[in-house]
Design goal:
NADH Oxidase; about 45% helix; 9 helices; globular; alpha+beta; single chain; binds flavin mononucleotide; about 210 residues
Length: about 210
């Protein structure tokens, strides 16, 4: 991909307000976006999140009332609810260590120092006290990754913080599993006539946002 194509995709994307409810993301494109989600990097690699992907309308219709009635929830092709771990435990770290050892074909004992570092920080250290917040920050990395990849593949998206997490947790049964909705992302294809598509991209100047030293 050329630099021009990359920037073209990022200029093209916008927070889509109106999706064409009749246009669905093809399976192969969705598979790539799902894989992109999974490939998101996280602190210590711990992946303290779960993604609930809703294509069925029933649950989405229920969530609409807890989303400021934003039509993207029901009109998009795929609605992704991104949930953060509410509290990190030693078991979470061990679960990851087991997986890492299995994938890299090494004994878990070889990862003892790594485990100690992660547990001492994210479970029992100062960040352990705010591990839900920490987990939510990891979720936002996944959100950014998903949106950029969607834009590159010509898929529209709307990141959505306008949701009531407690209600999402209840409807999707997230709390009992130790997760809480942090943010959502509606994906699909823009409806003709969504006036937001025609608005100029508004950002601060580079000189304001970037300091070069
Ligand atoms: C984390 C996050 C949450 C957002 N929540 C909503 C939302 O609930 N509803 C909405 O219509 N737009 C939402 N937006 C869209 C922003 O308003 C939009 O991205 C921003 O104004 C920049 O415009 P652009 O994305 O069209 O370039 C959200 C964006 C982000 C990054």
């Amino acid at each position: 991909m050329s630099t021009q194509e990359l920037l073209g995709a990022l200029e093209w994307r916008y927070a889509t307000k109106r999706f064409d409810a009749n246009k669905k993301i093809p399976a192969d494109v969705w598979q790539a976006l799902e894989r992109a989600l999974i490939l998101t990097p996280t602190s210590y690699g711990l992946q303290p999140y779960r993604f609930v992907i809703l294509t069925d309308l029933e649950k989405r219709a229920e969530l609409l009332a807890h989303s400021w009635n934003q039509p993207q929830v029901v009109d998009c092709s795929h609605y992704v609810v991104m949930a953060a771990r509410t509290k990190m435990t030693e078991a979470d770290v061990d679960n990851w260590i087991q997986r890492l050892a299995q994938v890299r074909k090494m004994p878990p004992a070889a990862l003892t120092a790594y485990r100690g570092m992660a547990v001492g920080d994210i479970v029992h250290g100062s960040r352990g006290k705010v591990s839900h917040e920490w987990a939510a920050r990891q979720v936002y990395i996944a959100l950014g990754n998903l949106m950029t990849c969607a834009a590159v593949l010509g898929v529209d998206a709307c990141p959505m913080e306008g949701i009531v997490p407690a209600e999402y947790d209840r409807v999707l049964g997230l709390r009992d599993a130790g997760y809480s909705a942090a943010v959502a992302c509606a994906l699909g294809y823009r409806a003709e006539g969504d006036k937001y598509a025609a608005l100029s991209k508004a950002r601060f100047d580079a000189a304001e946002l970037i300091r070069k030293i």
